[in-house]
Amino acid sequence: MRKNVDLVDARKNKGLTQEELAALLGYSKATVSNWENGYSNPSLTDAFKVSRILEKDINKLFSGLDVQENHTIKEEEAI
């Protein structure tokens, strides 16, 4: 687990608290805290939303992290 200082810095530079960013995304403060502290990673969709809100390149915010795509279904599972 690695703290995401790029995400923390971008959020603070935008003048948002964890709670405010979470509200914009429809999540709890704990979710944003977990992303920042490396306990979990956002889905790919959420990573793009965060990038847009914070006006930062997604690669700079989440470089080196594995994003989770929770909605991917393998073709054989869909049959």
In words, what does this structure look like?
This protein is an all-alpha fold. Helix content is 58%, strand content 0%. The chain has helices spanning 5-13, 18-25, 29-37, 44-54, 58-62, 75-78. It starts with a helix and ends with a helix. The model has no long low-confidence stretch (mean pLDDT 86).
* Main β-sheet description: none
Beta-strand proportion:
under 5%
Helix content: 55-70%
What's the helix-strand series? HHHHHH
Question: What shape does the CA trace take?
Answer: globular
Structural class: mainly alpha
Number of strands: 0
Low-confidence stretches: none
Mean model confidence by pLDDT:
86
Write out key terms for the chains shown:
79 residues; 6 helices; 58% helix
Write a brief caption for the model.
The chain is an all-alpha fold and 79 residues long. The protein has six helices and no strands. The protein is globular.
Any chance you could write out the topology, listing elements then pairs?
Blueprint: H1 5-13, H2 18-25, H3 29-37, H4 44-54, H5 58-62, H6 75-78
